[in-house]
Amino acid sequence: MATSARRKTAFITGAASGIGRAAAEAFLARGYATALVDRDEVAGRKVEAQLRTSGECQFIPCDVTDDAAVRKAVEATVSAFGRIDAAFNAAGIDGEKGKQTADCTMENWQRVIAVDLTGVWSCMRYQIPQMLASGGGSIVNCASVAGVVGAPYVPAYVAAKHGVVGITRAAALEYARQGIRINAVCPGMVDTPLTRDFMTPEISAALLAECPIGRFAQPNEIASTVLWLCDEGSFITGQAISVDGGWTAR
Ligand SMILES: NC(=O)c1ccc[n+]([C@@H]2O[C@H](COP(=O)([O-])OP(=O)(O)OC[C@H]3O[C@@H](n4cnc5c(N)ncnc54)[C@H](O)[C@@H]3O)[C@@H](O)[C@H]2O)c1
After folding, report:
1. Quick one: CA torsion of 42, 45, 46, 48, rounded to 10 degrees?
2. CB under 8 Å, gap of 24 or more: what pairs does 216-219 form?
3. Considering only CA atoms, which residue is closest to atom 26 of ligand 1?
4. Do the beta carbons of residue 165 and residue 147 sit within 8 Å?
5. Ligand 1 geometric centre to CA of 103 (Å)
6. With respect to CATH, is domain 9-190+219-243 assigned 3.10.350.10?
7. pLDDT of the chain along its 250 residues, tens only?
8. For this structure, is 175 an active site residue?
9. Atom of ligand 1 nearest to the CA of 195
10. Which of 86, 109, 121, 231 is most deeply buried (CB count within 10 A of its CB)?
11. Which run of H or E residues covers position 9?
12. Whose CA is nearest to atom 42 of ligand 1?
């Protein structure tokens, strides 16, 4: 149970890698007790061991496509830390790349929508009642620039991320008067295992040419925005905040 009524707590999915992990570091550094939620048990336990020196954290294995497991993960967090003040729903995959819309397989479509969109909704449907019960909170959903503008050859990903922005706006309107702010963060290209997985020098050069700021983001640059939205963004709700080096400014 919570050791102090004043201590803040965070629930972060995708916490075993990349942006989610960087967010866990940022919230821990700010003094949040933090639930590290991820489907990757090996990486999750390793991250938990590494971050324990920074503050109170607990790895909770959970595949966000398993609604019952998400419910249990939220319950486990409340049972360990007493409440959820902040949630960052960052677990995600990009799926097949290089396929045009008519060639996207049904399997890829369903998998990407299940993880990136339904998974976010599933997390919110259990986080929101806990936040209502404890007097409010802040949720940040991880969308993408692909949730704001089109991107070719990843149709399921683009559809899922536009959906994340949509459900963020809808839920924000519903709960704004009940003390819950809900926003989306929309990263541009970030240097994480997800992008390193498909990066070749040619792809990297092409993407950098598209990016006004001329470099990829580091995960902590997304994490700091998420933490700021939760801690400082008291009049911000229903927004899709691009953290993209100017990608969507055109
Ligand atoms: N890296 C980028 O350039 C970039 C850009 C825009 C948006 N994003 C989004 O940021 C989020 C994090 O991406 P990242 O780059 O840190 O990737 P990453 O691959 O480094 O980390 C993703 C994490 O999510 C976890 N995960 C995947 N599917 C899951 C599931 N079903 N249940 C629970 N956990 C699951 C993975 O195990 C992994 O730890 C994703 O939603 C991604 O779409 C990333």
Report:
1. 160
2. 216/188, 216/189, 216/190, 216/191, 216/245, 217/187, 217/188, 217/189, 217/190, 217/191, 217/243, 217/244, 217/245, 218/22, 218/190, 218/191, 219/18, 219/19, 219/21, 219/22, 219/23, 219/190, 219/191, 219/192
3. 91
4. yes
5. 24
6. no
7. 444 456 899 999 999 999 999 999 999 999 999 999 999 999 999 999 999 999 999 999 999 999 999 999 999 999 999 999 999 999 999 999 999 999 999 999 999 999 999 999 999 999 999 999 999 999 999 999 999 999 999 999 999 999 999 999 999 999 999 999 999 999 999 999 999 888 899 999 999 998 999 999 999 999 999 999 999 999 999 999 999 999 999 9
8. no
9. 1
10. 86
11. strand 9-13
12. 92
What residue spans define the domains of the chain?
Answer: 9-190+219-243
CA separation for the pair 19, 223 (Å, rounded)? 6
Distance 140 CA to ligand 1 centre (A): 14
